[in-house]
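Rather than argue in generalities, we have chosen a single entry, letters for residues, whole numbers for local backbone shapes, without further comment.
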Amino acid sequence: MPISSNGSAPGLRRPKVSADLLDKIEHLRAELMHAADETNFNSEAVVELSQRLDHYIVLAQTQMLGKLSDSGLSQE
């Protein structure tokens, strides 16, 4: 079976990541980039932001696989 450009077989749709989660990821990414520019990559602030961003990326990947609803977004 051929694979489409989005990585799934034709006719199969993977659930999309919620807009709220994508916004949260983008916001944290921007914060992380700013913090890394202002301090160093080993600073407590950068490490904490990186860990938070990782958490939300995992949530997005889980949503993409259809295993999670928007409910995981409220976790911080």
